[in-house]
């Protein structure tokens, strides 16, 4: 541990954190990062629905309803198409946590960066699939990628829990905090409500952009998410490198002063 005035540079379980009054969370838990993930979630859900047979890749509640509807209509093929994304979502959660404990030894930041890298690879493959391929293949891949994202990214800010790939829980938290903020006059809750509003708006904008791009690029429109994630990974890497460099320089300065 490096002690720099009132800051602490922690290297615990492979996670770089700057802890002080101004910087108390990982970059992956910042509001801006959460908004990027939420927009990607909205994009993927709209993509699977518009481009690949009206199936939800991220919102599995909708798929459960579709399974029930198709079962009632004795449309077993349609029911199967809705079950596959659900199963892939489960598999993705299992694999995500297995990778976290078995390969990354609970090193949060490395795990999260790797999850995004895996997502990028899966989405690139999805975009390369010929349009003649069954929709079920693309939906399975996107659901798997979305489940990994949901598994790894669950918090933003200091204590807010959220879902980056669907919005029902976020809507509940947003409405609850607006009530406490406006009716009970709790300013902190009002700030939380505004942050949740940003998450919801990002999800919506991602879905809108996906619907527009799907008309032009069809199955390759999913590459937009991959491009955004690659750019985000590069930004996180450079930011962490810059933070580490500054920490080392500050420590050297303190050592010189001590001498």
Descriptive report:
The chain is mainly alpha-helical and 259 residues long. The protein has helices at 31-51, 60-72, 76-102, 108-128, 135-152, 168-182, 187-217, 223-258, and strands at residues 2-4, 7-12, 15-19, 155-156, 160-161. The strands form two sheets. Strands 1-2-3 form a three-stranded antiparallel β-sheet. A two-stranded antiparallel ribbon has the order 4-5. The protein starts with a strand and ends with a helix. Mean pLDDT is 84; it is low at 1-24.
**What's the number of extended β-strand segments?**
5
State which percent range the strand residues make up. 5-15%
Per the principal axes of the C-alpha atoms, what is the gross shape? globular
Share of residues in helices? over 70%
Q: Number of helical runs?
A: 8
How are the strands ordered across the major sheet? Answer: 1-2-3
Largest sheet descriptor:
3 strands, antiparallel
Gap between N and C termini: 20 Å
List keywords for this structure.
single chain, two-stranded antiparallel ribbon, disordered N terminus, globular, mainly alpha
Question: What does the secondary structure layout of this molecule look like, with pairings?
Answer:
Elements: E1 2-4, E2 7-12, E3 15-19, H1 31-51, H2 60-72, H3 76-102, H4 108-128, H5 135-152, E4 155-156, E5 160-161, H6 168-182, H7 187-217, H8 223-258
Antiparallel strand pairs: 1-2, 2-3, 4-5
């Amino acid at each position: 541990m490096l002690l720099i005035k009132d800051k602490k540079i922690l290297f615990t379980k492979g996670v770089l954190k700057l802890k002080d009054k101004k910087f108390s969370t990982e970059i992956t838990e910042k509001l801006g990062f959460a908004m990027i993930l939420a927009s990607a979630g909205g994009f993927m859900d709209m993509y699977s629905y518009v481009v690949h047979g009206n199936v939800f890749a991220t919102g599995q509640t909708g798929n459960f309803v579709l399974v029930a509807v198709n079962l009632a209509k004795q449309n077993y093929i349609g029911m199967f198409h809705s079950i596959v994304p659900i199963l892939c979502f489960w598999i993705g959660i299992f694999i995500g946590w297995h990778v976290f404990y078995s390969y990354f030894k609970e090193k949060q930041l490395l795990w999260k960066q790797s999850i995004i890298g895996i997502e990028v690879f899966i989405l690139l493959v999805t975009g390369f699939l010929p349009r003649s391929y069954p929709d079920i293949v693309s939906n399975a891949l996107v659901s798997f990628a979305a489940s990994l994202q949901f598994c790894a990214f669950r918090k933003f800010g200091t204590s807010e829990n959220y879902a980056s790939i669907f919005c029902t829980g976020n809507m509940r938290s947003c409405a609850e905090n607006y009530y406490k903020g406006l009716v009970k006059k709790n300013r902190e809750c009002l700030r939380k409500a505004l942050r949740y509003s940003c998450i919801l708006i990002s999800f919506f904008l991602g879905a809108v952009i996906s619907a527009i791009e799907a008309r032009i690029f069809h199955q390759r429109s999913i590459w937009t998410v991959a491009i955004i994630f690659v750019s985000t990974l590069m930004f996180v890497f450079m930011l962490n490198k810059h933070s580490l460099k500054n920490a080392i320089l500050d420590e050297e300065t303190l050592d010189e002063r001590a001498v």
